[in-house]
Amino acid sequence: AQTVTQSQPEMSVQEAETVTLSCTYDTSESDYYLFWYKQPPSRQMILVIRQEAYKQQNATENRFSVNFQKAAKSFSLKISDSQLGDAAMYFCALRAGTYKYIFGTGTRLKVLA
Amino acid sequence: DAGITQSPRHKVTETGTPVTLRCHQTENHRYMYWYRQDPGHGLRLIHYSYGVKDTDKGEVSDGYSVSRSKTEDFLLTLESATSSQTSVYFCAISEESSEAFFGQGTRLTVV
Predict the structure, then answer these.
(1) Which residues from A are below 8 Å from B44, CB to CB?
(2) pLDDT one-digit tens code per residue, A58-106
(3) Residue in B with minimal Cα distance to A89
(4) Sequence-ordered list of residues with C-beta below 8 angstroms from that of B75, at least 6 positions apart, any chain
(5) Which of A67, B20, B25, B75 is deepest in the core (most CB within 10 A)?
(6) CA-to-CA distance for A92 and A73, rounded, in angstroms?
């Protein structure tokens, strides 16, 4: 069975500071993809970043970067220079084997002015 | 933005009535999914489709059925709605090597 675990239900960060959201996963597949999605109050699911398991280099998208530790099955998201607009629910997701996407329970990020 | 439209966006229905939610895509993506989102549970897969008339169950499929008679449409039916099916429902689409793209969500309330 494939699982995704987000152990931080809620996190807070001061504006302009850096925050890291944690995600661990489990799969027996060797070929898989990992994702972070952002869900603002509008409810829309927005892709933040993706990582292919075969790539050793950590993915980066502007202020967002990941720390992909394949052996530890860890996939954390780092948000640098946090902005008020970063406040949202963040979901970690895994796609492996079949084409199903498995999601974690989410982390609510609050950004303090 | 990926062309995915869910309808209706909001619905209130009574216990025991049938409900159908519709997902329509204009991207010609092969895979389509229905998820439900509940506090503390994240997004859980109800059913998914890997082609026209090809569907499979997800982790929370009891009480739900789906149909896909055309590439662009994926219907989710609650045969007899219950209060436990009050939730936000998301449709998503994907291709072989892509991320999932989501619709705007449907808030369903069963009273």
Answers:
(1) 103
(2) 999 999 999 999 999 999 999 999 999 999 999 999 998 878 999 999 9
(3) B42
(4) B20, B21, B22, B23, B66, B67, B68
(5) B25
(6) 13
